[in-house]
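Go through this pair.

…
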Amino acid sequence: MIGNHKEINLMLIDDDKQFLDLNQAMLERENDEFKTKATTEPQKVIGELKSGWPDVVVSDYDMPEMDGIELLKRIREHDEALPFMLFTGRGSEKVAAEAMNADVTDYFQKGSGNEAYTEIARSVTDEVEDYRRLRTADILTDLVDHHSEPVIVVDDEQNITYANEALAEVTDKEIQNIVGEDISAVNVPEVEGELSNEVYHETLSQGSSIVHNIWEDDETKYHLNLTSVSGYDGTVVGTATST
């Protein structure tokens, strides 16, 4: 399983329909979390890519309309990090070198029996996990860095995975000294106790923003604004602000 997002959208391309059907059946048998679409037309892969459906592409090399390397280059114009596996019957050093130069994610040769499908399935699972982690990190980083108020990103164990400069100023700590610490490192009174009980889990279950006043005195009111951010790993963004 990859975080809380189990399914892996796997795009298969091969000009040999019989071999394509075999690939689809074998890979789905290797992992029941694979949701596959198969086509003999490379242009359809580009169309699916624009829709945002694929998590990974497994492609043949030798195809009449567009070979696997040309397809990879087209894909890289849209997404520089999408996992792309080349599954080819042409095992020459020239093809392998060309694939590596084009930034192929992995390279497999046909004709090696069922072991090839096991290896592909393992590589797909590992590479998609890395890809999703990268995509989520990019989204959260953009969100946090452009926020004018103090923001922390916490994982499902309530450890801080990212923070912005505004939070560093509030806590008078360097960001690198905050990341990896427990939520209590933000030094807002009673955050640890409040967050670890109902509020945090309520945010996770509702998937919405919750503003919770956690403490106040004559001079300052502290509140915690928790927002569950859509991500493959269920990451939560928490905004700790003082007013």
